[in-house]
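Hey,

Quick one before I head out. I ran the complex with adenosine-5'-diphosphate overnight. Inputs first:
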Amino acid sequence: MAKAIEIKRFSYKYPDGTIALSDINLSIEEKQKVVLIGPNGAGKSTLMLAMAGFAKGEGEIIVNGLKVEKKNLKKIRTVIGCCFENPDDQLFMPTLFDDVAFGPLNMGFNTEQVKIRVAQALRTVGMEAMAEKAPHHLSAGQKRAAAIATVLSMSPDIIALDEPDGSLDPRNREKLVALLKNLPQTLIIATCNMNFAAAIGDRAVLVDKGRIIADGEAKEIMFDTKLMAEYGLEMPAMVNDTSEL
Ligand SMILES: Nc1ncnc2c1ncn2[C@@H]1O[C@H](COP(=O)(O)OP(=O)(O)O)[C@@H](O)[C@H]1O
Ligand SMILES: [Mg+2]
């Protein structure tokens, strides 16, 4: 299997001295659905930022064979599409159409190609009827879907989502699970909701205090009572039961 992401001995310290990641080694294969789990402050968001080249630390990160470094960043950000914790950070244009078109326009696609990409991305997230709406008028669930569409329109090989389940009601969370499960891409999802994580992940990587504590088959990790309790995480209810999401 080809590697989507390869992280070797990566450490990152914020300018104020906080050590957010220490000696991370992680290798993610193409098409894998990986959930990054861990309590608040564990380092999940920082790890995602680092993968997309927003947190330059020590060690090495390779995305689809490209080293994360300045000269490769433009390309890397078309290969890995990231949705940050707050969808408002991603929606800044007058209409939803413009937001979803932003990426493909920057990639140099012509107007016709951009229209096709936007229509496809909006259809995938079920928002095709809202293309002309102002993103700041969307509901929380719609904003999440819209932010995902801004990434899908670039057709990245890897999609990284930071707590995409945040502020979603159960029905929208269920819809999001269905959407994410059907995406063909490599998925990396940070969350502290174990029901959500269990519904999507094949593989779980437990992070705490900037280190990888456990890495393995999602169900094995999340149903390890001792491990979950030790890191203040709840066990999922039932893997195939999304009613408890
Ligand atoms: N901009 C920042 N400046 C300083 N410290 C930060 C910053 N962002 C996050 N941190 C710290 O880095 C650590 C990891 O944070 P983060 O990656 O956001 O964790 P998580 O996403 O798992 O909640 C925490 O100790 C947090 O306080
Ligand atoms: Mg976070």
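The domain at 3-234 is CATH 3.40.50.300 (Rossmann fold).

Talk tomorrow,
K.
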